[in-house]
Amino acid sequence: MGKRPPKYSAGALIKHGLTRGDWPRMWRRPEMRTSYDVVIIGGGLHGLATAYYLAENHGISNVAVVDKGYIGGGGSGRNTAIVRSNYLTPEGVAFYDRGLDLYSTMAADLNLNVMFSRRGHLTLAHTDSALRTMHWRAEVNKLQGINSSVIGPEEVRKAAPSLDVSPSTRYPILGALHHPPGGIVRHDAVVWGYARGADVHDIHILQETEVLDIIVNGGSGPDGKGAGGKVAGVKTSRGDVSAPIVVNCTAGWASLISNMAGVPLPITTHPLQAAVTEPCKVFLPTVVVSGSLHVYVSQTDRGELVFGASVDPVGTYRVNGTLEFTEELAGHVLELMPGISKMRLLRQWSGLCDMTPDYSPVMGNTPVEGYLVDVGWGTYGFKAGPVAGETMAETIATGRNADLIAAFGIERFTEGDLVGEKGAAAVGH
Questions:
Q1: CA triple 242-246-252, angle to 5 deg
Q2: Is residue 351 within 8 Å of residue 375, measured between CB atoms?
C-alpha cells in the first residue's frame, strides 16, 4: 500500500531524451508461483482494476491475474470507450457515477495520461415514447444528484451542429437526454495504467496462461463442485495453482469459466461490432446516441469517428466484423449526419458481450465459498471497470458484498429482485 511507480514527467522525458536511456517496462513477466492468496481470471480492465485496488486499498498483494491471451486483448480492447452514468435504476446510477469519479482522477492516481475527455453525452429521442423515457431517466438521474436533463432540437443542434434536426427527416429529433459529465477515454491506456499500478505492488500478471479448470471441493454437484463447495485453486496450461479465492472477470467467456466451478450463470454471449473511419477535422464535440437507429458515435482527438451499434441477435463467440453490419451502420449514421457520406471506414471489429436477463451485471460472492464473479456486463463493461475493481476488491477483503454491488448478486435471479437496465442501453439490444 502506498507504492508508486516511477513518475512520468517532463523532466523524466528530457532526461531520457538526452541520455537515450531505456524506459523501465510498465509491467514484468514473472514466473508463476504455486500458490496465491487470490487468483483473478481475466487480464482486462476489470481483472487488473480488482488486483490494483486489492493492493492499493487493502494491502493484499499476493495476487495473480491470469489471461489465456494478452492483457486488454478481450472486451477491454474491443469497445468504443464511452463513459457515462445516466442510467435508469437508482442502483445503476449510483454505481456508474462512482465509476465516472474514478475516471476523472485516474490520470493523476495512476500517473498515466488516459486521455479522459468529459465532452457530454446526447441520447436522442425520435418518437414521443422515446422522449417520455428520456424524461423518466432524467428524473431518476436528478434524484441521485446526476447532471442530466432533457433538451429540445435547437439545443441539440448547438451541442452537435453536424446533426440534422430539421422536422423533414425520416427520423426527426424531438429532443435528447443531455448528460454533460459523459465522455470518452483511451481504453488501452486505462488497461496499461492499472497493469502498471498492479505490477508495482508485486502483483503477478500472467499472460498466455489459460485456466483449464477451477478446483472446488465439498460441493453438492458432480466432482464435488457447485453449491456448498469451497475453492482450492485453479488448473492452468502452466500447472496447478492453489488459492482460497478465485475471481471470474472474463466478460464474454464468463459462463464457460463459471461452469468450471459448478456455478451456472443466466448469461448468453453475443458479439458487439464497431467501426472507425479515417481521421478528419474535429467537428463532433459530444457523444451522440440514437436508440431508434441503433447507433452511437463519437470522435477521437485524432479526428476518427468511432461507431457502434446493437449486439448481434445470434449468440456466438465470433470476434470478426461483417458486411451486413457495415451496410446497416452506414445507413443509420447517414440518417443522422448526411454530410459524412464521403468518409471511408478504416477498420471494424467485434467484442463479446455477456448478457443477463435484466441487463445488469452479476457481482460478488456465489454459493461456492471463495469463488466470486464480476461478469454479465453486456455493453456496459468499460464504463464500470474502475468501480467494479474497487468494489470487488472491497468484497474480497471484507468477505461481504460491497454496498454499491449488493443489488447485483446472483441470488436476485431466483428471488425475483431484478435490476432492469434495459431502458438505459445506449442502443436497443
A1: 130
A2: no
Global pTM reads 0.94
CATH numbers and ranges of domains, the chain: 27-112+187-265+358-424 (3.50.50.60), 121-183+269-355 (3.30.9.10)
pLDDT, one tens digit for every residue, the chain (429 residues): 556 666 777 787 787 777 877 777 889 999 999 999 999 999 999 999 999 999 999 999 999 999 999 999 999 999 999 999 999 999 999 999 999 999 999 999 999 999 999 999 999 999 999 999 999 999 999 999 999 999 999 999 999 999 989 988 999 999 999 999 999 999 999 999 999 999 999 999 999 999 999 999 999 999 999 999 999 999 999 999 999 999 999 989 999 999 999 999 999 999 999 999 999 999 999 999 998 898 999 999 999 999 998 888 888 998 888 999 999 999 999 999 998 999 999 999 999 999 999 999 999 999 999 999 999 999 999 999 999 999 999 999 999 999 999 999 999 999 999 998 886 765 654
